[in-house]
């Protein structure tokens, strides 16, 4: 099961890690099959999965290829901020096009990934929505030319 350490970070036991591995291989794998693989009943697996979901340890989602759903431009944007990062990070998090927001140490204060319909949409996002946020000092965009690898299997290493 997942418990929390003194910092509030979930601590996951080996059986829950095995369940996560099973779901990373196939997010639609039946609980009975997972139970057989990890040595639990279907009901016990169902309970553990629900707890992992409730605690925010994992999500079960459908991952699409942006190109196949009409989103033809992706970019990573490095952002430098004056003052407190939290309001800028919160504003970016609220934007539908922003898929990923991380506070960093190094050349940028924030890194975000945005997914847009086309270059005009990307320009509008950067010029009209991101650069105009209070506190944003500068941005640098890294437009994706080709996505070579995207996985979500790091969860149990």
Describe this protein with a few key phrases.
two-stranded antiparallel sheet, alpha+beta, 34% helix, 4-stranded antiparallel β-sheet, elongated, 5 helices, 157 residues, 6 strands
Explain what you see.
Helices cover 34% and strands 23% of the residues. It has 157 residues and is α+β, with helices and mostly antiparallel strands. A hairpin with a 5-residue loop joins strand 1 and strand 2. Helix 1 packs across helix 2 (31-38) and helix 2 (31-38) packs across helix 3 (42-54). The protein is elongated, with a radius of gyration of 19 Å.
The residue ranges in which pLDDT falls below 50 over 5 or more consecutive positions are none
Main sheet overview: 4 strands, antiparallel
How much strand?
15-25%
Count of separate DSSP helical elements: 5
Question: Would you list the SSEs in sequence order as H and E?
Answer: EEHHHEHEEHE
Whole-Å distance between the termini? 17 Å
Helical fraction equals: 25-40%
What order do the strands of the largest sheet run in, or round the barrel if closed? 4-5-3-6
Alpha-beta content class: alpha+beta
Q: Compute the gyration radius: what is it? A: 19 Å
Number of strands: 6
pLDDT averaged residue by residue: 90
Shape: elongated
């Amino acid at each position: 099961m997942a418990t929390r350490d003194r910092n509030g970070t979930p601590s996951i036991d080996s059986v829950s890690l095995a369940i996560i591995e099973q779901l990373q291989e196939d997010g639609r794998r039946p609980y009975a099959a997972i139970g057989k693989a990890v040595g639990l009943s279907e009901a016990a697996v169902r309970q553990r999965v629900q707890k992992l979901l409730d605690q925010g340890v994992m999500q079960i989602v459908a991952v699409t290829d942006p190109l196949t759903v009409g989103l033809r431009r992706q970019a990573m944007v490095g952002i430098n901020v004056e003052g407190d990062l939290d309001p800028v990070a919160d504003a970016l998090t609220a934007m539908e096009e922003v898929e990923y927001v991380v506070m960093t140490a190094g050349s940028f204060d924030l890194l975000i990934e945005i997914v847009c319909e086309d270059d005009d949409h990307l320009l509008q996002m950067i010029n009209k929505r991101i650069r105009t946020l209070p506190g944003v000092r500068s941005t640098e965009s890294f437009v994706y030319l080709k996505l070579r690898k995207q996985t979500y299997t790091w969860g149990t290493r």
